[in-house]
Amino acid sequence: MAPPHLMSLADLSVAQINRSLAHAAHLKKLSQPVLKPNATTTKLPSNSLQHKSIALLFSKRSTRTRVSAETAAALLGGRALFLGKEDIQLGVNESASDTAKVIGSMCQGIFARVGEHEEIEELARHSPVPVLNALSSLWHPTQIMADLLTLHEHAHLFSGASSSKGNTPEGLPALPPLTIAWVGDSSNVLHDMLVTYPRLGHKLRVGTPSNPKYHAPSAVWDRIKEVNCEK
Prior knowledge:
Number of helices: 7
Mean pLDDT: 91
Distance between the termini: 35 Å
Strand order of the largest sheet: 2-1-3-4
Largest sheet: 4 strands, parallel
Oligomer: single chain
């Protein structure tokens, strides 16, 4: 059986998104004492990645994504292996399928930040371990999860409206139904907003240039319709 992969938040149900947010908030709270300067404790918040290695496959650089991913793996008792495009043979004399099979034979997960979305789809197609999309040309699920956690943590700023408690992650403040605006060309961040916010009870208002080249591609609209977020 193929392992579960995360290409977009369209791959997750509302219940799965909320459980992930609740667990992220829990781990963040437990991690804060360890991350403080001159921390007096070294107790890890979890050992869920103990004796496990996570490959960070980055063909596109990112300071925050790399630092947060490596730190997260360590806090969960695991080890992150950073594999930049200068470190491995991917795209030089080794295919994505071979790379996925080799990495998957020695690591327990792949966290990939790539250029074209086809790259991560090819990795997932041949990987024997879960592949998580840290960014591709079409989708950016981790960014929207981080945004949602931030919104819940600052829910007190959105007073005066009734809370949508049915869509509230356990242990986090409830958010009222929000109207969220996006102004600019279509991007991977907007694409994951489009398949996520409406399912959580929020309205999304998008203003993009009239030229079709700035609009979401058909592959994104297919996923939007699939999760009933087209209206």
